[in-house]
Write a structure and sequence with these properties.
Helix content of chain A: 10-25%
Shape of chain B: elongated
CATH topology of the largest domain in chain B: 60s Ribosomal Protein L30, Chain: A
CATH class of chain A: Mainly Beta
Strand order of the largest sheet of chain B: 6-9-7-8
Oligomer: heterodimer
Order of helices and strands of chain B: HEEEEEHEHHEHEE
CATH architecture of the largest domain in chain B: 2-Layer Sandwich
């Protein structure tokens, strides 16, 4: 093998070896989509389908008569109703220790949630934020509604 | 000015400062109720009972109460939309081998059919050890156990890319045991479907 080609092979092998470490930086998986749902990531607006991964900082928006459901990696369950906006503002989870942090922002409309392993392991590790409140979650099932005017 | 008109004007004024928010605490699927703490600039409101509500108007949260019927009416569709609750089962190996016990082996075919209940199905395979040996050794042993269980599930027809593998070491014993005391019931693999 020529040195250049050997270097290329080494670079490819390194890149492949590095991939698994990145594999679990996703926050959750989309489990249901009804109607029109979009996702904002890095300033781009993308369509959403069942099975798509949700990354930390992703913002989901539903249209009229639409809804979306997401299961986070720590088993937190999320359902967002019509004309709503919800973001997974922060997500970290170590499956071996079950420690981490979950911050979900309910920006408008209705979102129902069931907290998961992060809230169970540490009573101060899960929060939900709204435009005016910060909600500490020590378990488990709840609904957050944000009514906005002028829409 | 009539009282009704005053109330209407007050409602409009409040709606004008950024809208209203409601946080409702619900019983979970087992009927248990958690605790949530609603913090605003004006203070903290704690919800501890089923159907307790914090209504945020302006910067204040006011504690209120609702009931199951009102929640079903207002939030029924959103609550029905919650993803399916994860389902769990436990597999055991024959002592000192990588073969499942006959009882555990009999559970494997059912996993694939149970998985059909879930959209975009995920299987999380967590290995566990008892509290003999040091933590690093147990972390590796538990991961080895989980990997063996994953291979068994893949052989049974579950796609490998749907499976995540975790080594939990001795962190989550099924039955209490003192460090250094063997406890076969804690040497196991838990399978979570979601």
């Amino acid at each position: 093998m020529k040195p250049a080609r050997r270097l290329l092979a080494l670079l490819i092998a390194t890149a492949l070896a590095a991939t698994p470490a990145l594999a679990e930086d996703w926050a959750g998986t989309v489990k249901a989509v009804d109607g029109t749902v979009t996702l904002e990531r890095d300033g781009k607006t993308l369509p959403v389908a069942v099975g798509d991964k949700v990354m930390p900082k992703d913002k989901l928006t539903t249209a009229k008569d639409s809804r979306v459901a997401v299961t986070l990696r720590d088993d937190t369950l999320i359902s967002t109703g019509p004309r709503s906006q919800m973001a997974v503002a922060e997500f970290a989870f170590d499956p071996a220790t079950q420690s981490g942090s979950v911050v979900v922002s309910v920006l408008r409309g209705v979102t129902a949630m069931v907290s998961g392993l992060v809230a169970k392991a540490n009573a101060s590790a899960m929060r939900v934020t709204t435009p005016t409140a910060t909600i500490g979650i020590r378990g488990t099932e709840f609904v957050v509604e944000v009514e906005t005017t002028g829409e | 000015m009539s009282k009704a008109l005053l109330a209407a004007l007050a409602a409009v004024a409040l709606a004008g400062c950024g809208g209203r928010e409601r946080i409702v605490l619900l019983p979970d699927a087992d009927g248990k109720v958690g605790v949530i703490e609603v913090r605003t600039e004006a203070g903290t409101t704690e919800l501890r009972e089923a159907y307790a509500v914090a209504r945020v108007e302006g910067k204040r949260a006011v504690a209120e109460k609702t009931d199951a019927a009102a929640v079903a009416e207002r939030y029924g569709t959103v609550l029905e939309g919650l993803p399916a609750r994860p389902q769990r089962l436990t597999l055991y190996f024959e002592f000192g081998t990588d073969r499942l016990t006959a009882q555990s082996r009999a559970l494997v075919p059912g996993i694939q059919s149970d998985l059909r209940r879930f959209a975009a199905p995920e299987v999380v395979v967590s290995g566990h050890t008892d509290a003999i040996g040091d933590p690093a050794f147990n972390d590796k042993l538990s991961l080895d156990r989980a990997n063996r269980a994953r291979d068994i599930l893949v052989a049974a027809g579950i796609p490998r890319d749907q499976i995540q593998v975790v080594g939990r070491g001795a962190r989550e014993p099924l039955v209490a045991a003192r460090p250094g005391v063997p406890e076969p019931r804690n040497r196991r693999v838990e399978i979570k479907l979601r």
